[in-house]
Amino acid sequence: xxxxxxxxxxxxxxxxxxxxxxxxSRHCSPCDIKELYVSECALTGSRAVQQVMDVVVFSWTExxxxxxxxxxxxxxxxxxxxxxxxxxxxxxxxxxxxxEIEKCKNDxxxxxxxxxxxxxxxxxxxxxxxxxxxxxxxxxxxxxxSYPKYTLSQETIEALKKxxxxxxxxxxxxxxxxxxxxxxxxxxxxxxNMNPITLKRWLLGIQENYRSNPFHxxxxxxxVSQMMYGMIHLCNLQEKLTLTDLxxxxxxxxxxxxxxxGYNNTYPYVCAVYLKSPLHCGLPDTLTExxxxxxxxxxxxxxxxxxxxxxxxxxxxxxxxxxxxxFKHKVDNFDFTNEEHVTCLKMxxxxxxxxxxxxxxxxxxxxxxxxxxxxxxxxxxKEESEGLPVAxxxxxxxxxxxxxxxxxxxxxxxxxxxxxxxxxxxxxEIMVQPLRDSRDHYEELKQIDDAMTEKKxxxxxxxxxxxx
Length: 468
Hints:
Family: Belongs to the cyclic nucleotide phosphodiesterase family. PDE9 subfamily.
Organism: Cyprinus carpio carpio
CATH class of the largest domain: Mainly Alpha
Order of helices and strands: EEHHEEHEEHHHHHHHHHHHHHH
Radius of gyration: 40 Å
CATH architecture of the largest domain: Orthogonal Bundle
Number of domains: 2
Structural class: mainly alpha
Shape: elongated
Mean pLDDT: 75
Domain PDEase: 140-449
Strand content: 5-15%
Number of helices: 17
Number of strands: 6
Active site: 216
Distance between the termini: 144 Å
Helix content: 55-70%
Cofactor: a divalent metal cation
CATH topology of the largest domain: Catalytic domain of cyclic nucleotide phosphodiesterase 4b2b
């Protein structure tokens, strides 16, 4: 312990416990104070200086109202200098931020103008807001989810599970609700802990990013997705594949033609933009969005995303022979526990769904042939106007419905579906037989067209002889 007699500190163990308040004469200098503390506390010089310089409070005996607090002056000056330098640096950085903000504003305006100019080539693809020339935000055009929740009838639910479902008379909002129902019915929403509202938003974003072209539009997306859903039920794939596999199949079907330009791989522009990837695959951002409504670990999501892209790439008809041959070698000894076998099956399934229009009744399928031919003619007209060679199957002066469909059905569709039928015999009646009927239908039409052409030739020859 210690006691204070107003001038000195007495410590029993000769250690300095804390600074004390002492009265000194007006003429006492700081050096005298230091020496006094050193001698009284029996400390080393360096330790004494350190502790004495921390806090020393003293006053003049003649004017006790005036108290002076002594600090480490040199350290205080250094601290003030450093803080001043920091403030100056901060002012400089804030000035740079102002410049960067202005630059960002200009970049955003340029990007917004570019997006608005590109929007003309899309259907139902508005930005969330309209912007005026001065960049001020106006009222929202729409928010998501903007489509109502339809209550599907039991009749519609049962029809939706069949590959023969008629998709022609459904509005976009109704198709969105049907797609939403498919994800719920297959157990994907529960399995991946999806937020239902975010699922609605994502599906609406999908619809908005399909272009308005004759064939590869949102209605085609729905046709392929519904056909996939129908094949899952028809082939009892829920019992053979995992829910992750079903989610990959459905999401690949939904996304497979996103942002499709309407031209195939032979068009030079497509080759230049997509290089070795088919034009079907303009969707990396959309697939990334999938993870926002699915509770999937990042590493698992990477694998799922790559699996979806693999299926989308499989829809490129340039790879048709390669994929079908691979499946033919596996189908006789197919193993559902073999990952390579399952991946090959999924690739064939999405190919079947993508080109399955002829599975529907003729009155439903034939309008899609018109859309497909219009797509071909649109590309051939553009190629011709640019002085590029035109593929024979796209030449509007040479192609007819029968000539376009007979070869495709005979040499592409039927062989592929009959190969799948080896693994799933139940598709023969509902899917394979309609393809055979469609082939026969177009062969009959071709015979009629050939007869009409021959008749015209005969009439022309006859008229030519009379003129002579």
